[in-house]
Amino acid sequence: MTDKKSAHLIVLGNEKGGTGKSTLAMHIIVGLMDVGRKVAVIDLDARQKSITRYLQNRQTFMANGGAKVAMPEFSVVSQSEIGLIKDREKEDQKNLQKTLDLYKNTVDYIVIDCPGNDTYLSRLAHALADTLVTPLNDSFIDLDLLGEVSPTNFQVKKLSCYSEMVWDSRKFRSASGQPPMDWIVVRTRLASLDSRNNKRVHDALDALQKRVMFRYVPGLYERVIYKELFPSGLTILDLEQMNSLSHVAARQEVRSLVESLNLFE
Ligand SMILES: Nc1ncnc2c1ncn2[C@@H]1O[C@H](COP(=O)(O)OP(=O)(O)O)[C@@H](O)[C@H]1O
Ligand SMILES: [Mg+2]
Predict the structure, then answer these.
(1) If you count Cβ atoms within 10 Å of the first and of the last residue's Cβ in the chain, which end, N or C, has fewer?
(2) What is the DSSP pairing of strand 73-76 with strand 39-43?
(3) 8-260, which class in CATH?
(4) Separation of 227 CA from ligand 1 center, angstroms?
């Protein structure tokens, strides 16, 4: 659906709520704007609208006299509710394409934040993603979202529906002659203590990444600063002053994460 010169599409997806997609999306968006890139945002989670709310808070912060911060353009695309599935899917496709067309020649990156469940719009976004970012919390429950891995010998027993869906998206891309999607799994909300569980999740992800072909990169620790700035619409990258070592570490963590996405030539 998109042509070669158009904006690079980054999709935040998995099939679970609360793993940190919208939080990660916001930090990637600000991370890209922070190095002078133009970004547009499409919210496919019309029920929660977390990323939209985050960005509206950012607008309000400035309108109320706060410092001027970079702003992306943003839109919500809601699921169609018309009668037949066939017609709904057609309308979803039309609405997403219309929104992509609005931005694709005017920005460098389009960031799409998906809901935590399987929707047709989310599948369309996955099929179009140049880069797919999947946040995963530090537990075997979340790991099941990618595939079933034996906790004793780390053998991959079977892939999850989500991994199968990403696989289909990849086939769709290659059939339509597009370069391969870069799938990145990011661990988020990591506990600060290096626990045994942490190491086991690491080993299991390592086994999975060979089988499922994603890149697994260090992500964000569990830090208050990643949630407390939501009402102001800001992120750690927007703050002029760092108040603690934890803030310095958080800023570095976000920058490293954005770099590890390999978005810059
Ligand atoms: N790295 C983090 N540290 C602390 N809290 C986080 C972190 N990432 C996400 N959260 C919090 O976890 C909750 C779910 O995050 P959210 O980004 O809304 O997930 P999703 O979009 O996948 O549903 C929110 O309350 C958010 O503030
Ligand atoms: Mg969300």
Answers:
(1) C
(2) parallel
(3) alpha beta
(4) 7
Q: Summarize the confidence of residues 104-133 as an average pLDDT.
A: 97
In the chain, what are the helix, strand and coil shares in percent, each to the nearest 5?
45, 20, 35
Distance 44 CA to ligand 2 centre (A): 9
Residue with tokens 């970012």: 133
**DSSP class of 107:** -
Distances (CA, A) of 261 to 11, 95, 168, 214: 12, 28, 22, 12
Contact 26, 235 (CB under 8 A): yes
Q: What is the pLDDT of residue 264?
A: 86
Mean pLDDT of 142-159: 89
Give the other-Cβ count within 10 Å of 260's Cβ. 14
Which atom of ligand 1 approaches the CA of 224 most closely?
A: 4
| Number of residues assigned to the chain | 265
Among residues 1, 256, 230, the alpha carbon closest in space to that of 112 is found at 1
How remote is the CA of residue 135 from the centroid of ligand 1, in Å? 10
Token pair in block for residue 210: 């060979």
Out of 65-74, 182-191, 192-201, which region has the weakest mean confidence (pLDDT)?
192-201
pLDDT tens per residue, range 21-57: 999 999 999 999 999 999 999 999 999 999 999 999 9
d(CA 151, CA 40): 40
Ligand 1 mutation pick, 227, 232, 246, 257, max ligand atoms within 8 A of CB: 227
User: What pLDDT, on a 0 to 100 scale, did the predictor assign at position 228?
Assistant: 95
Rounded CA gap, 151 and 164, in Å? 21
